[in-house]
Amino acid sequence: MTDFLGSFWNLFPVTLAQSLLYAFVALGVMIPFRLLNFPDLSCEGTFPLGGCLCAALIAAKVPPPAAMLIAVAAGFAAGCATAAIHLRLRINTLLAGILVITILWSLDLRIMGKSNVPLFSLSNVFDTFWPRFTQNAVAQITFWLALCVGVVLFLHWLLRTELGLVVRAVGANDTMARANGVHVGRVLLFGVGAANAVVAFAGASVAQIQGYADVAMGFGMLIGGLAALIIGEAIVGRHTVLRQILAPFVGSVAYYQVISLGLAVGVHPSDLKMVTALFVLVTLGLPTFRRQAKTQQAEPRLRA
Amino acid sequence: MLRLDGIRKTFHPGEPDQRTALTGVDLTLAKGDFVVMIGSNGAGKSTLLNVVAGDIAPDAGRVFIDGEDVTALPTHERSRFIGRVFQDTSACTAPGLTIEENLALAAGRAKRPGLRSPLDRDSRARYRAALAPLGLGLEDRLQTRVDLLSGGQRQAVSLVMALSGEPKLLVLDEHCAALDPRTAETVMRATVGAIERTGITTLMITHNMHHAIAFGYRLVMLHEGRVLFEASGEGKSLLSVEELVKRFGIVDDALLLAS
Ligand SMILES: Nc1ncnc2c1ncn2[C@@H]1O[C@H](COP(=O)(O)OP(=O)(O)OP(=O)(O)O)[C@@H](O)[C@H]1O
Ligand SMILES: [Mg+2]
């Protein structure tokens, strides 16, 4: 009994650091899904793109900060590609995302020349300003927490400017946005691009911290991000701008601790993705299920 | 000000569900003109407004605003000089945004959005002053999200939005149809008041024959995708509801019910 709590507790700081980093994936899911009303799957591809491109560049002796910047820019471009496929060719957003993910898989392999690139012996962007960062949980928590707070404050400011209003209007009602002078296509292009830039940033960071990049590192990213987002929205709500921005961060922290607890009580690691997917399924399906139950209950009363 | 030249539109051409909505509409509104458009359901009124606003590209014909051919101009660029209220009460406002945010968005539609805060004491005072004449108490609810308003209240907000930013042209698609009779009167009076005060060129659709006869400088009846009848000045003021219905033999439940 105390045994699993002990191991959960020991892992708490590492898990916290990890969850604050993965919060950026949840943020990259929240932006298109919630702010832009553009269901976008591309993060499943832009996460490994960020990781693989950054790793390949570092391995090719490109300075880590530059490698990171290029990786983020590539994520932005990939997100724009998804949006452009939808806007120009009128292909469903989900299918557009899958097309981009599929293309990126091959691209990652081309970039790396093999299915993974180790970085253990190479310097990374974090070590350059915080020696032994990757081995230091406290340093990681401090850094990621500061970055998360900064990003939340920035978004909270941005979304209440004129530009932010335009972005939110596009997500809330694109007909209305158009009738009020908003170039909806351009907003979606930049918005989905920015979201995937954030995801690619997370991918590049993960590759450097875990010490390698792998083409398969993006698998399950979307469902994980979505699960974190849903948990966060259950905790902090989503009816104000601030709460909607906080949700992916709070949710990510809660989600990874729950996973860690699950692992501690003996959930098999290979079952985690299924458990997460089932969680998302149940959460998304529950309202419909409840409604059906309610109408079935109401029927006899009507007949009586 | 606004000139429509031989506008034609057929939806889904060549398919089983082909529908011809407009069969050659010519209509000119002089600057400051206030045209009321009537016509039975499916006559093509909304389609015509969508052509004016840029949402629907006509199959043939041209749209001129202020002498400039805007037929190919996308909606968001036209919206710089067109204020508009749709028939659908949820189409004109952004649900997750508050009343004041919706108004701010509309007020800024002619400008490129920047990183300034869109709301300040001055703008809020302006919004309050614009909402007060509607008599719905919305001026005290600036921070309410519009999806929490009733359809009629949203339409009232939409009207204020359409009028803001000094557009050259106002297009109203049955903007009072979803309102209860008393609110409809209030909003219609506010609409007409604003139109007369600003002298804005207006194209207004209504199913309410009393409004059609009482308001506007010209009356246009659309039927089966074309202009069937026009009246202005004395001819218009002498019209009666019964006469309109009798003369054109158009049996339209909405027309009769409204009268
Ligand atoms: N998007 C569309 N696709 C197919 N057909 C359409 C579309 N929009 C309108 N129509 C058809 O065009 C015709 C004119 O429709 P429209 O909406 O312009 O009528 P209306 O005069 O506004 O009627 P109402 O008084 O009921 O609002 C109708 O026959 C309608 O079925
Ligand atoms: Mg209509």
Q: How would you portray this structure in words?
A:
The complex is a heterodimer of chains A (304) and B (259). A two-stranded antiparallel sheet of chain A has the order 1-2. Chain A is built from 12 helices and 2 strands, in the order H-H-H-H-E-H-H-H-H-H-E-H-H-H. Helix content of chain A is 79%, strand content 2%. Chain A has a single domain (2-266), classed as ABC transporter involved in vitamin B12 uptake, BtuC. With 304 residues, chain A is an all-alpha fold. Chain B is α/β, with parallel strands linked by helices and 259 residues long. Chain B has helices at 45-53, 75-78, 99-107, 121-131, 151-163, 181-198, 209-214, 233-237, 241-248, 253-258, and strands at 2-11, 19-29, 34-38, 60-65, 68-69, 82-85, 169-173, 201-205, 218-223, 226-232. The model of chain B has no long low-confidence stretch (mean pLDDT 88). Chain B is 34% helix and 24% strand. At the A-B interface, helix 7 and helix 8 of A face helix 2 and helix 3 of B. Residues 45-46, 87, 173 of chain B line the site of magnesium ion (MG).
